[in-house]
Write a structure and sequence with these properties.
Blueprint: H1 5-12, E1 25-28, E2 33-36, E3 43-47, H2 50-66, H3 70-84, E4 90-95, H4 109-122, E5 126-130, H5 136-142, E6 145-148, H6 156-165, E7 168-172, H7 179-191, E8 197-201, H8 217-223, E9 231-234, H9 241-254, E10 258-262
Parallel strand pairs: 3-4, 3-10, 4-5, 5-6, 6-7, 7-8, 8-9, 9-10
Antiparallel strand pairs: 1-2
Helix pairs in contact: 2-4, 6-7
Length: 270
């Protein structure tokens, strides 16, 4: 039996507590698959809206048919690794923006998801999309993983519904949540049958107005002693290239299983 905080966790959140080794599992679609956690390679997840992903997917497919310049492709990939700072990591999943759960765009959700699915398939990527209680069935139809936004971290009916859905779940930490509150939320998903749960550290509230969110890497290190679940660091909200590069490197060094970055092969702003 593990000692310290993990033993206490075995009593309060037994399904997600660290007992033995860290968990590793596969998320797959008809076009792609990804193993995450448990010593698998560090994962890069690209965040962007349907319009940018679709345009890029079309351009990429066109370029693939007409241009096989290996040196150019190698230089391009190196350029992005230099900017984003995570060498030897593959962009494996498309992280859809929160607008897919926007109550004012309910009629556009399916068309947005269809575009995102097409963009993901063209790039041989998985698709992760945010869901609320109303949009969950539709999101499950198109997405390979369901993202639970920070504001819904303690939406217990939604957590249970996601657990019953059979989809992988990516649970983002609420901006003021403790680690135990976050793990207890994950326990709700696991208790409802969810077997593939990923935690995403999305930043916590702090006192400095110059920095919108504080990425809590100390918590990422602590979680590795408390839970078997894979852990991502979510930087999808960050518009500072140097910060994305530095934090992604730090996340990898501290043992996180991946990072969510602003669309890695497109400029952060036009």
């Amino acid at each position: 039996m593990n000692d310290g905080p993990t033993s206490d966790g075995e009593k309060r959140y037994p399904r997600v507590a660290l007992i033995g080794s860290r968990q590793s599992f596969v998320i797959a679609s008809r076009c792609a698959s990804l193993r995450i956690g448990g010593g698998a390679p560090f994962v890069r997840i690209g965040a962007g809206d349907a319009g940018r992903w679709s345009a890029h997917a079309h351009d990429h497919a066109h370029a693939h048919d007409h241009d096989h310049d290996h040196d150019h492709a190698h230089a391009h990939a190196h350029d992005h690794d230099h900017v984003y700072g995570v060498h030897d990591a593959i962009c494996a999943m498309l992280w859809a923006p929160g607008s897919v759960a926007d109550p004012y765009a309910v009629n556009e959700i399916e068309s947005e998801l269809r575009l995102l699915r097409d963009a993901a398939d063209r790039r041989s990527l998985l698709l992760c999309a945010e869901a609320d209680a109303e949009s969950l069935p539709l999101v499950c139809e198109y997405a390979d993983a369901v993202r639970i936004a920070p504001r819904n971290m303690q939406n217990f009916p939604l957590l249970r519904a996601v657990g019953r859905s059979g989809r992988a779940a990516i649970l983002q930490r609420a901006i003021g949540a403790t680690l135990d509150e976050w793990l207890l939320a994950a326990e709700y998903i696991a208790d409802a049958g969810g077997e593939r749960i990923v935690l995403a550290e999305s930043g916590i509230r702090h006192f400095d107005p110059e920095v919108p969110r504080l990425v809590d890497l100390h918590s990422v290190a602590t979680l590795q002693r408390k839970t078997k679940l894979p852990i991502l660091v979510d930087l999808s909200w960050c518009d500072d290239r140097m910060a994305v590069s530095a934090i992604s490197r730090a996340a990898m060094a501290i043992g996180a299983d991946g990072a969510v970055e602003p669309t890695p092969w497109l400029p952060l702003s036009s």
